[in-house]
Amino acid sequence: MDATFWALVGLVIFLGIVVYLKVPGMVAKSLDERAAKISKELDEARTLREEAQALLAEYHRKRKEAEKEASDIVAAAGREANAIVDDAKQKTEEYVARRNKLAEQKIASAEAEAIKEVRTAAVELAVAAATRIVADKVDAKASATFFKDSLEQVKSRLN
């Protein structure tokens, strides 16, 4: 008997013990458990991936909504700014028109006042000149007669 025979006998005994102790079943069971665990992890990963894709889609939708809302806000702000500018222009034009009208009224008032002052000065000058002329030409007797005549004219006109 040589060493090869004893190696064969040892191998057969070893394989017999391995089969007797049900090692192939334990290995198969361990592999099945590991395969089930890997399958479960794959399912969980697939579920997480689907949830992540759903969240990503939701964030994209929310971003688009936010961008639309932002553009709406910008457009509304632009419209409001234009309205404010138009209103300011209108109010400025109205203010300028009021100021022009007020200035024209002041000019007209100053012109009327100047005309009144010129007339008053002319009347005063005419009265002074007339008084001097009358005083030079009229004596006391004529002045009394002139005064009476003037008084009569005033009474007749007042009545």
From TrEMBL:
Protein function: F(1)F(0) ATP synthase produces ATP from ADP in the presence of a proton or sodium gradient. F-type ATPases consist of two structural domains, F(1) containing the extramembraneous catalytic core and F(0) containing the membrane proton channel, linked together by a central stalk and a peripheral stalk. During catalysis, ATP synthesis in the catalytic domain of F(1) is coupled via a rotary mechanism of the central stalk subunits to proton translocation. Component of the F(0) channel, it forms part of the peripheral stalk, linking F(1) to F(0). The b'-subunit is a diverged and duplicated form of b found in plants and photosynthetic bacteria.
CC annotations in GO: plasma membrane; proton-transporting ATP synthase complex
Superkingdom of the source species: Bacteria
Cellular compartments annotated: Cell inner membrane; Cell membrane
Ranges annotated as spanning the membrane: 6-23
Subunit-structure text: F-type ATPases have 2 components, F(1) - the catalytic core - and F(0) - the membrane proton channel. F(1) has five subunits: alpha(3), beta(3), gamma(1), delta(1), epsilon(1). F(0) has three main subunits: a(1), b(2) and c(10-14). The alpha and beta chains form an alternating ring which encloses part of the gamma chain. F(1) is attached to F(0) by a central stalk formed by the gamma and epsilon chains, while a peripheral stalk is formed by the delta and b chains.
Cross-referenced InterPro entries: ATP_synth_b/b'su_bac/chlpt, ATP_synthase_B_chain
NCBIfam families the record matches: PRK09173.1 (NF006611)
Main location per the UniProt record: membrane
Family that this chain belongs to: Belongs to the ATPase B chain family.
Membrane topology: Single-pass membrane protein
Listed CDD domains: ATP-synt_Fo_b
Pfam families, per the entry: ATP-synt_B
Name of protein: ATP synthase subunit b
Gene Ontology terms for molecular function: proton-transporting ATP synthase activity, rotational mechanism; proton-transporting ATPase activity, rotational mechanism
